[in-house]
What we know:
The chain is mainly α. Helices cover 70% and strands 0% of the residues. It has three helices and no strands.
Amino acid sequence: MSNINEQIEQERKNARNVCSTEGDASGDCAAAWDAVEELQAEASHQRQNETPKTSFEKYCDDNPDAVECRVYDD
């Protein structure tokens, strides 16, 4: 997750640079901020998909040979 946060910061710096050079009303400025927004949306999406493991899942991770944790293929 920290990698996407670093990308967001880099794109923010880039957007500020582009807007100061090209002007706030330029298409390049708008495109640069769109890139920031897309990364922020992706970061939000990744946070929503992170579901904490249940106690049972943690137990099975620690004890894969336990009878309760066995998985049988059909």
